[in-house]
Amino acid sequence: MAYKRQIGTFVGLFALLGGCQIVGSIEPELVLASGDEICGDGVDDDGDGLTDCADPDCGVSLCVPNAPPGWEGPFWVRHSAWDGTSGPACPAGFSGSAHYMSPAPAACTPCACSDVQGGACAPPKFRCWPSKNCSGEVVNTTLQNVGQCEAPFGPFPFPSASCRIIGPGAVQSEGACTASGGELTEPQLFQQIVSACELGAGTGCAEGSTCAPPLEEGARLCVRSSGGGVCPSGWEAETLTAYAGGQDARTCDACTCQLEGAGCEGGAYRIFDTNNCQPSGSGADADPPIDITGDTCVDVSTLADSATFSILALEASVYTGACTSAGGTPSGAVLLEGAVKYCCR
Ligand SMILES: [Ca+2]
Ligand SMILES: [Ca+2]
Fold it and tell me: Out of the domains of life, which is the source (predicted)?
C-alpha cells in the first residue's frame, strides 16, 4: 500500500477507535513494512506464517471492536453519490452489501413542442377592377397556387385597372406538432449508495475485536440492524437509515401540444403589362411589373393599356399556427423498502 495513504488511514483509525488499545506504532517504517498481507481476511496472504493482525505488516492497530449482540457487523460503511448501476465498493477480499439513501424526487423534464409541420396557405384573396380606384365592377382574380398566371380582363381594350389584396389566403393544410419531454429527470430510485464492507473474519486481535483493513477515506466503522432500535453504547457517533430498494411510484403527466392561431397572413401578386406574366419587351408601350403586397388599392392602368394585362400569384400567405405545450406534471414518490439502521463509531 502507498505510504501516504497508510499514514492517513492510521491517523483516521486512531481517531475513530478512541479508547481502543493501540499497541502498534504509527511510525512510518512500521507502516511501510506492509507487504501483500491483506489485513482482516483471515488468510495468511503473504505466506509468512502470520495472519492478519498477528502479522507485523498489519499490526494490532487495525483491531476493531466486534458488533454488540443483536447487531450485524462490524462494517466499513461509506455513502457516496450513486450512478444508478454501480454496486458496493469494498477493498479487495471483502464482500460488500449495498443499501441506498436519498430517494430521487419526482421531477419531470419540461414539455416542449416541435415547430409546426405541414401548415400551408394559398395565395391571398385578390381583386382587380377596370377602374383606377378599385371601384365599380369587380373581376374575381383570386388564384389558387403560387406561380399561377391569369389575364383576367380578356383581350379587349380597357383604359384603366386597379387591384388590391382583400384578405389572406385560405389554409391549405392544418399544421401539427410533436410533443416531447415529460420524463423523470432521475430514472434511478436513489441518489446515494451506502456500501457496507463486511468485517469479522480477521484474526490476530484480542478477544472481542477483529482485524480489519485500513479505513478508507470517508468510511465509518458501523454495525447494522434491520429492526431499528437504539444504537448500542459506543456506536452512537453517527446513524444512517438506508434502504434495500424501493418501488417507483413516480410519474409525469404526458406532454401534449395544442395548435393555436392557425391562419394565414401576407402574400403578394405581381402585375404584368403582357398577357402571359412575362416581363415586357422594349416597345414604346412596355412598362415594368408592379408588385401588390397589401390591401391598399394600386392603380395599374399603365399596365392595362394596349389590351394586355396579367397577374401572377407571387407569394402565398404565411401560415401563422404555433403550438403550446401542456402536461409533464410530476406526482408520486419512491416507495421505500427494506429499511436498515447503521450505528457508527
Ligand atoms: Ca490476511
Ligand atoms: Ca502473513
Answer: Bacteria
